[in-house]
Every structure is written in structure tokens, then in C-alpha cells.
Amino acid sequence: MKSLWNNDEAAKFALSNNDLLALRVYTSRLLGQEPALVLHGGGNTSVKASATNLFGESEELLYVKGSGWDLVTIEAAGFAPVKLDVLKKMAQLEQLSDSEMVRVQRAAMTNPNAPNPSVEAILHAIIPFRYVDHTHADAVVTITNTENGEERIRQIYGNRVLIVPYVMPGFILAKKIYALTQDIDWAPLEGMILLNHGVFSFGDDAKTSYERMIELVTAAENYLEAKNAVLAPPPATAAAKENLLTLARIRKSVSALKGAAVIAQLNTTPESLSFASRADVVGIGTRGPLTPDHVIRTKPTPVIVGDKPEEDIVRYVEAYCEYFERNTDGQLTRLNPAPCWAVWPGFGVISFGRSVKEAQIVSDIKDHTIEAIQMAELLGGWKALPEKDIFDMEYWELEQAKLGKKGNPLTLQGKVALVTGAASGIGHACVEALYAQGAAMMALDFSPTISTLFGKKEIRSMLCDITFEENVQRAVESTIRHFGGLDILISNAGTFPLSERIAEMNPDTWDYSLAINLTSHQQLLKACAPYLALGVDAAVVMIASKNVPAPGPGVSAYSVAKAGQTQLARVAALELGELGVRVNVIHPNAVFDTGIWTEDVLEKRAKHYGMTVEEYKTNNVLKTEVTSKDVAALACALVGPLFAKTTGAQVPVDGGNERVI
């Protein structure tokens, strides 16, 4: 572990050495840049400083990391200013619930708009150094999660650190350390090691506290290396096996137990595959988390799935419910028992989440956990905390207090969609609308612009000519690999050929229109159907045309293809209905912000009807213009719960067309 301190960078944060909080921000970000120290909000930092209040009085404050802020991106506003004397008095109390602790700490803040102070604020306050840094360093926690872990820590650090047996974070931990340190001299200490939890370092300037953390963690890393407990790169092995239908089944099973759709990210890196393929993975992979803080994200253990994944997941849920009953005091609300990650021998490791972000957080924690488990095995054996300690953290009163306070999820949260013709017009609008309602998706188009349009983790883009069946199959399989399943298909790609009467029809015009406007939709349905059958309340929306119920002269190539697409959707509704998949059709008309409506086409169609372009745009009963966003809004409604009992329907979005009516 290397120090990232840079004098020039530090100077940008602090114009003078007296700018204590600015330097606190700087070194906090340095810690946050290293995943082996902190992951996704883990760890906390503080600085003690004087401030002048409204009355001109000087008061001592603790600026401590606030809840909801991540060290890698924290700003000054992310530190809660708390009166230091109040925190020190709280440490002297005999008893204090963590909920009451949070209330009192918030009452002691000098800025009511600041975030809630860290639950470790009292502990930071009683450490008699200006700067305090706390991380969950992988190397240190790995060593403590072994037989004789405490003895090893003493060998590494001697008298440089205070060693604290594991206790729950919050007031209990602060009280424990307060009692341990009443008669000690802090001056020789560089930090504290909290067994099975993490590391504290401290100093009277930001650089000293930060670099002590780096030195303490480096000492643990050096110890692991000296004991040959550092993992070598996984050996070159055959590629991971692939069974995308089983992956979709696993996702569907977890979603059903979760009571909501989840993203399932399959990780097939050599590291994940090597761990999943270990002969002893069932034994070592189910002993507990790397640090108790992770249990909130990952549950105590993963599920190990084999040839009958649904049965394995059901057994996992049963075991989790038994774990809860063994440890509850009868006053707790059981959390959802569905697993947060899965080990799939031979295939890799799967992370589940209600969003891509949540699944990625689980995946990141998993990466560090499986490395630590294997290093600890090399050091003498992986040994997590006892079950009761893990349970107490998972069911911490502060976490229980959050239940019921969560807002309502977005309508399509956790759903996976595939949208064709996504680079412009209706397809682009559908991608944006689905994303706004919580869906993740694959966006397809044959335009190269598709690769740079969205820039969001939830939206993967792929260049794809859907007139080629092999391209369609690759795109569908890529969707499953990245998100674990498929729930929504917006079959939108299309083309509007130049107007040609039947007697004058160019064969290429006819063939090309049928290839894109009809055959491609059949190929897409064929590729998607097996996965939609394993989706969560799966739904298909075909974007057809007003020309189906009301064709016009000169557009037979388009009208016939769209009529065929509509008939395809009707048959699909019959065939897929018994699998729980809904198929509905939207008939837009005169949607002029789409790729097929070039200025040339628009002018010709307006001229054909003897209208100006503006008259043509609003040529409907409601005298209103229909936009791509209007069509996308209807598509989202059709795939959502409002139309859960509707299939085989054809819905116009055209402002009211006299010929259709």
C-alpha cells in the first residue's frame, strides 16, 4: 500500500496549513480511492477544530463523516459538525441505545442541514488527536478472521496499536474503548486494531494520520506475503461454462422470493471462476462475511447453486429463516430471506440487486470477500465471527429503524428490457422512459451513434443490424449475460420506404421493408421468447402503425409489413400467454421526431394530402402533435402493472384518426 499524499494536491485543498477541514477532505478522498481500505460508504474520518458561533464564542467541534457520503467523493458538506464536549459526555454514560445516540448527536450539531454524524462519532471524539481515520482494511481484517488472529496482530504491531476485541459498532464500541483507555498514554500509539472490524489511525495533522494508516495496512500486507498467504493469479483454465437459460431461471427464482425483480450480474473473471470451482467452496464460502458491516449488503452467506438451482435457493431461504428464529428476541422484523449473491460452481459468481448499482456494490464486496477467504485459508483457516455477532449487526436497531421508511420503488425497478431502433425517435424515447422508471436495458441500433448516446451503467448499447438472425441472437444473449434475464421487449426498429404504387413497386423496396418491418421482429421474438418465459411479469410491445387499420395509397410495402407485424404480435399473444408473457401493439401515427420522417418524406406526404407541413403534423381529431415521448409513455404503461391483465391489444396513439375511428 503506497501513500498517495502529494504536497501540490494538498495545497489545492488548503490555502494554508490552518485549513483543517479542507485537508480532512483531501486525505479522506485518498483513503476512498483504495477499495482495499473502504468499500461503498465504509469507513469514516474526522477532524477536531475550533469555530466561532453566532454569539462570537469559540467552541470545539468534531467534523465527522456524515451518513450517506462516500469517502472517495466526499466534500466539506459531507462532514457533520458536532459539539465535542457533548460527545465526550455521552461516552461517560452507562447506557445509551444507538437510536438515542443518533438523536442526541444530531441535537448537538451546529448545522441542522448537515447529514447525520457517523455512528462512530463518540469514538472519534474520545481519541485525543486532531485527525482520526478509520477503514476496514482487507489485509488487517483477513488476518483477524483466522485462528489465532489476535496473536498474529500482536506479532505484527507490538505496542504500536491498541487491540480491541470485537464489539458492536456505535455506543457499545465507544464505551468499550473509553473504559480501556482511562489509564493509558495515547502518545506512543499510532492506531487501533478492532478485531474482525477494521483499523483506526490518528495524528495531529492530516498527513500523519493518513500515512500512519498506510503504514499499518502495509505491515499487515507484508505479514501476509511473508507467510505465503498472498494469492497468485488464477491459473489459466478453460473459459467459464455458460448456461444463460439457467442464469435466467436463477434470477427468476430470486426475484420471486424477493417479491420484486432483481438484476443478476454474473461475474466470470478468473478470480470468481477459480473461487466458485474450488472443491471446498461450500465449506469456506458459507462461514460469514469479511467484516460485519458487509452483512447489511450481502447477508451472512451466499447461496451455493448446483444442478437444481431453484431447490438450492429454497433451501437457502429455509436456512435463513431458521437462522433468524435462532437469534431473534421476538421483537425483530425478519428481513427478506432471498440471497444477495450466489456461488455457481463452474460458471462464476452472481450478484443480485434491485438496481445495477446495488448489484455492483454486492459484486465489489464479493470480490474482496472471496480473496480474503482464500488468503485466510493459506494463513491457517478462514474464521468469521460467531453467528450471533453477525446477526446482531444485520439486525442492528439502526437498521431495523430504517424498515418502513424506504420510499416506494420505481414502477419498473429491477426489470430488464431490450429496445430496438434505440438511437433515435420512438426507440430512444422508450430507452429514456424505461430508465426513468427504474429499468435496466440493452439498446440496439444499426447506427454507430448508439455506442455514445446514453453513458449510464443501466443502459448498455450495442451496434446491431437486426435483419441478420445471428446478430439478433448475439444481442439477446449479451443482454442476459449483463443483467441476468429479460422482462421487457420493445420491438420498435422500422423503416418508412419512399412512396411507390403497387404497379410501379421496386422489388428492393418491398423486400427491404419486409426484412426490417416484419422479419426482423419475428427473429427478435424467436430469440427472446425463451428468456421472456423466465422473466418477471414479462411483456412485449410491438411498435406498429396507424397504417394497419387505415392504409393509404403508395405505401403498400410499409403497410403490408406493419400489418404482418401486428398479426405476428396477435399470434405471439396466443402462444406466449400460457407462459405469462403479455404481447400488445401500439399504432402510432404522424410521429415526426423519428428517424424515418426525413424532411423530404414529410414534405412529400403533406403535399400528397394537399396540406402544409404544420397542418399535416396536427391532422388529427384532437389537432395535436404526437411525439416520440407520447409513444414511449404508452409503451411503459403497457409493460407495467396498469396493463398486467391485458394482452393481444392494439392501442392507437395518434391524436384520433378519422379513418381509424
Helix content: 40-55%
Give the total of domains. Answer: 3
CATH fold category name of the largest domain: Rossmann fold
Regarding quaternary structure, what we see is: single chain
Uncertain stretches: none
Descriptive account of the structure:
By secondary structure, the protein is an alpha/beta fold. The strands form three sheets. It has a seven-stranded mixed β-sheet. Strands 14-13-12-15-16-17-18 form a seven-stranded parallel β-sheet, with helices on both faces. The chain starts with 6 loop residues before the first helix and ends in an 8-residue tail after the last strand. The chain has 24 helices and 18 strands. 42% of the residues lie in helices and 14% in strands. The protein has three domains: 7-226, L-fuculose-1-phosphate Aldolase; 244-402, Class II aldolase/adducin N-terminal domain (L-fuculose-1-phosphate Aldolase, 3-Layer(aba) Sandwich), CATH 3.40.225; 416-653, NAD(P)-binding Rossmann-like Domain (Rossmann fold), CATH 3.40.50.720. Helix 10 packs parallel to helix 14 (309-327), helix 18 (425-436) crosses helix 24 and helix 19 packs parallel to helix 20.
